[in-house]
Amino acid sequence: MAVTPRLALTLMLAACPLAVAVANPLAGTWRATQAGQPIEITLSPDGAFARRDHGPAGAEMTVSGRWTLTGSGPWLRMTVEDWAPRRACGLLGCTDIRVPAAETYRYILRDDDRLLLEDPGGQTEFRRVG
After folding, report:
1. What are phi and psi of 96, to 5 degrees?
2. I need a surface site. Which of 14, 25, 51, 126 has the fewest CB within 10 A?
3. CA distance linking residue 46 with residue 1, whole number of Å
4. Which domains does the chain have, with CATH numbers?
């Protein structure tokens, strides 16, 4: 059976991994402390993110969605798709927990293991843990 050059090239390219694909240097798991509370953000190479904040008395808040680099400057945008818990209950009853639909941060990556995120509320320095 004769194989055409075009078919042979297509099969070779399909079998080879993409050597030119470069992983985003922000992808990974990052930890910081903000107002005395631990925060962990995982930025997956596929554009998904998950953020876990540990509040007082061990209460945990998880937010997840998609992340992208936007604009001409160093801007990291996180678009929220889900969060938990959705309600907080206490002595005076329960209330819905609302989160912004998206947040945008100015970022600075230092030495590949320190990530500074800055928004109008200030700056937080994260360390790579994975």
Report:
1. -70, 145
2. 14
3. 40
4. 24-128 (2.40.128.280)
* Residues 61 and 98: beta-carbon distance below 8 Å: no
Residues forming a β-bridge with 87: 96
Tokens coding 54:
């540990």
**C-alpha angle 49/75/22, rounded to 5°?**
65
What is the spatial distance between Cα 106 and Cα 118, in angstroms, rounded to a whole number?
5
DSSP β-ladder status, 28-34 and 93-96: unpaired
Q: What is the pLDDT of residues 22-81, one digit of tens each?
A: 578 899 999 999 888 999 999 999 999 999 999 877 789 999 999 999 877 799 999 999
